[in-house]
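Hmm, what's this shape?
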Amino acid sequence: MTVRRRRRQGGEPWYDDAAGRLVRPYTVSNGRTRPTAHFDLLTMVMATGRRPVSCQGPDYAQVLRLCGGPVSVAEIAAHIRLPAVVTKVLLADLVDCGALTARAPAAVSAGPASRTDRALLEAVLNGLRKRL
């Protein structure tokens, strides 16, 4: 059985098809499990164009490449294949050093205009039942 390893830009192996990621998520965030800022999975982040001085490394570079336009925390976590909490720590580091901006999702008001239309939901449900 041959073990295939994918290599990062620097040439060092970072993923083994049989074993998975060779660098544990815990080490990517330097053992930190709490980001310095609050991020929802729907928080949108975007690169500012500043080059981070303190946030160096392949994981930070990969995140910055993904953030050319607005992208959600959930999408970034999926692309870099790391748990959301580790991704949030990386993102918080990049926000702290000025390389990213973050925008929380808009809150939905509880007024009469935002109430769910029961008839609409029932129509959607009935349509789905007919298709299945």
